[in-house]
Amino acid sequence: MPEPDVVSWTSMISGYIRCGKIDKARELFNRNDAKRDVVTWTAMLAAYARTNRILEAEMLFNEMPEKNIVSWNSMIDGYARNGRINKGLEMFWKMKERNVVSWNMVIAGLIRNGRINEAREFFYQMPEKNVVSFTTMIAGLSRNGKVDEARVLFDRIPDRNVVSWNAMITGYTQNSRLDEAFELFEVMTEKTVASWNTLIMGFIQNGELSRGRILFDKMRQRDVVSWTTMINGYVLEGKSEEALRTFCDMQMDDWVKPNEGTFVSVLGACSDLAGLSEGMQIHQDFIILFGASAIALKEKTSVSTIAPEVSHRAEGRPGQASAIAHGQRIRTQGRTGTGRSCSTTVLTHTVGTIALGCYSKIWFLQRPQE
């Protein structure tokens, strides 16, 4: 077998990085027989910078025998992510050569650290701008309440893409200017599922759940974000029956599968059940069908003895169960003290009926084909 060359080594190291195994990648990088070039060094450096391990990135950067523009840009981004934007600016001015990505990194970093006025100054000083430059500023200005200025920039973009359109729509919804968001959405020449999701989410976040639902019903194609956004909207409004009914409808979509975020929202609906036994049964059924966690009811009711078997089952899928449980803890704690309650008889009967229908649909989809 031929000896691996630098391309092979870089590919293996990058593979570990893509899988989130950065320490394993570093072990491979440090091997005496490893072949490295500037691309290999930069891949390792960028991995540290992206995962907020800025001190390790800094040490590696200082050890690099050769640096390229990507190495410098990675460090600027890493400093900005860690709240050290001044250090990022220092590196930016030290660069012998800068490209549009370098400028965009600084602008994004300044915005991330709440320095919108400086970001604006950098934007207008740029020798060359691309659609990312404009979109970054539009998003930053909108988050700081300067949506009219953002619209001026949007109208100046020579080559708008769907990301810039969505950023402007989001800007309007963030500032509760829903009619303008809808008008812009209507004139989009190319709407993607993400565009629909952006506006639906904006309506829901501004308390316009019914408008969000109307838009949702008009979608020709939906993804997991579309469904989860709608389910979560109902949960936030305290409409548990509608949330579960929407989840049941989701099961009939052959192209979409629930993810952990979906289950967090669905369990949020279940945790609103006033009848513990009925709610617990639904949670157990979800575990059987989907491997989800029922810890929400345990924490909501402060009963430490319920469903030890459920906890045991949840351990069967530790990654999924822990993520769902963590999300549900946040949701449950956030509701503590709100005083919102539901009628035990009406809610448990309604949700129980919906859940039964949901399970029958799931059984129908999963039954053996004759």
Automatic annotation (TrEMBL):
Q: Which InterPro entries match?
A: PPR_At4g14850-like_plant, PPR_rpt, TPR-like_helical_dom_sf
What NCBIfam families does this protein's entry cite? PPR (TIGR00756)
Q: Which UniProt keywords apply?
A: Repeat
- Molecular functions per Gene Ontology: RNA binding
The keyword Repeat is assigned to this record: yes
The name under which this protein is listed is: Pentatricopeptide repeat-containing protein
Q: Does the keyword Repeat apply?
A: yes
Q: Which biological process annotations from GO are given for this protein?
A: RNA modification; system development
**Any Pfam family matching the protein:** PPR
Q: Which domain of life is it from?
A: Eukaryota
| SUPFAM superfamilies associated with the record | TPR-like
Q: Where are the PPR repeats?
A: 5-35, 37-67, 68-102, 130-160, 161-195, 223-257
